[in-house]
Structure formats: structure tokens, C-alpha cells
Design brief:
Blueprint lengths: L2 E6 L2 E6 L5 H14 L3 H11 L8 H17 L3 H14 L4 E3 L1 H4 L1 H13 L10 H7 L7 E3 L12 E2 L6 E3 L12 E8 L11 E4 L6 H9 L3 E2 L1 E3 L2 E14 L1
Parallel strand pairs: 4-11, 6-11
Antiparallel strand pairs: 1-2, 2-3, 5-9, 7-8, 7-11, 10-11
Helix pairs in contact: 1-2, 1-3, 2-3, 3-4, 4-6
Length: about 240
């Protein structure tokens, strides 16, 4: 992670690097005033920087709040310093500001006390629906309907007309006088047959393998479901052959 370090009197504020904006320019100008001992001028510039019309990223605003807190602390305005630190921490509760203790231990204590008071919102108790989602099957889980379906709310349902009837011909175009073949294949979560999954388990002739495979690959299904979600399902079908 790229970081930008704004250093003054040993203080380092660390956040994500952002493009230069008007807010960032104003913070830089305020730091120049601080080096010159013009605290009031620095505060005036920071006030402009934190105006909602000044733009700037969340990191720019966070830096401006930290520097405003330091200035308020040195002007004896402890409550305003704490409020500035609080605003910075509300932007990012993980904000790290190093070097405060080297300047004044009280400054560091104020910042850390405010950090402890700014807690991330408590996580809401997950709903029943989210609980079911968390327990839902992984997308790559394959259920099996061989020899029977297990763990499914519903098995895949064929959408193609006469899906288990195949018109075939033998070698050289010779008609096939009926019969049956056994095939296995996986229906994916969209209802399509995974092409590489098609296997001819048995058929009247090895020459029918290509026709059987092409027929199965073209089938379309309503996908199988488990715990309300579409899942991959292994099927084994008996195909009726017609010449």
C-alpha cells in the first residue's frame, strides 16, 4: 500500500496516497504557517480545507482534522482538539498517528483516548436468510443422482422435447433397429450440460458414441437446486434409440 506521510515536529499521519486536491493544498499551506509559528493562520486554512465545498479525498480530510486537533491542543482548547481527533477517527478508526508522544505525552493520551471511544458499529446479528446463505453449497459442489438423487431440493428437469429419444443410424448410414444406450453427464448451474462431462456408459455400437454425445450436449435443463441455490448435478440417463 502506498502511503503519504505528513511530518511536522515529529508527527507522522499515515493514510492512502491521494491525488493533490484543493483540500490537500490547503493542508500543506497550513503546515507552512505552523512552521512559521502562525497557529491562527494555520487554523483558518484548515477551516477552509474542511469546508464541504473544498472537495478532497477522505484521506485529505482526515489529515486536516489531525492537524487541526494538534493546533487546538497547543492553544489550550483540549475539548476542541479531542473533537478534531474524533472526526479523523470516524473517517478511519485504524488511523495511525506516530510522534505525538515525542512532542507532548498529553497530546498522545488525548488521541488514544479518543481512539478507544470510537468503536466500529457492532455487527448486526445475521438474519436467518444470511445464515442459510452461509451454509449454502459451494458453487463447484457436484451433487449426484446416480443411482438416486441425494441432498437436492429438486433434480434437474429437462426442457428439451423428447430428451431421452435419439434418432441414430449405424455405420454407413444403415438404420438402427431400436435399442437403448446409457449415458452420464453433469448439468451445470445454468442448466447446460458440461460438454466434457458426457460419457457413454453403454450402447449397441461404438459407432453411435458421437451421435449420443452430441445429443446430450444439446440438451437444456432447469438446473438442480440444493438449499435454494442452483447446483451442479451428475445424471445417468437411459436413451431410447430410433432409426
Amino acid at each position: 500500500m502506498k502511503v503519504v506521510n505528513l511530518v511536522l515536529l515529529g508527527i507522522t499521519v499515515t493514510g492512502r496516497l491521494s491525488a493533490q486536491t484543493r483540500t490537500a493544498d490547503l493542508v500543506t499551506a497550513a503546515r507552512v504557517q505552523l512552521r512559521a509559528g502562525n497557529a491562527d493562520s494555520g487554523l483558518a486554512l484548515l477551516r477552509i480545507a474542511l469546508d464541504s465545498t473544498s472537495g478532497g479525498s477522505s484521506t485529505d480530510r482526515m489529515n486536516a482534522f489531525v492537524w487541526r486537533g494538534v493546533l487546538q491542543f497547543y492553544k489550550g482548547r483540549d475539548s476542541l482538539a479531542r473533537e478534531s481527533f474524533r472526526e479523523a477517527l470516524l473517517i478511519d478508526p485504524r488511523l495511525e498517528v506516530t510522534g505525538l508522544a515525542q512532542i507532548d505525552s498529553g497530546l498522545a493520551r488525548e488521541f488514544e483516548a479518543m481512539r478507544r471511544s470510537v468503536q466500529p458499529p457492532a455487527l448486526a446479528r445475521p438474519s436467518a436468510a444470511l445464515g442459510r446463505l452461509a451454509a449454502a453449497p459451494r458453487p463447484d459442489t457436484t451433487y449426484s443422482c446416480v443411482p438416486e438423487c441425494r441432498g437436492l431440493d429438486q433434480p434437474p428437469r429437462a426442457l428439451s422435447p423428447e430428451p431421452q429419444t435419439v434418432i441414430v443410424s449405424g455405420a454407413g448410414g444403415a438404420p438402427v433397429m431400436g435399442g437403448a444406450a446409457l449415458v452420464r453427464f453433469v448439468v451445470d448451474t445454468s442448466g447446460a450440460v458440461e460438454p466434457a462431462s458426457v460419457t457413454v456408459v453403454s450402447s449397441p455400437s461404438p459407432s453411435l458414441a458421437e451421435s449420443l454425445t452430441n445429443h446430450v450436449r444439446a440438451l437444456r435443463f432447469a438446473p438442480g437446486k440444493a438449499q435454494g441455490r442452483a447446483v451442479r448435478v451428475l445424471l445417468q440417463w437411459r436413451l431410447n434409440l430410433r432409426g
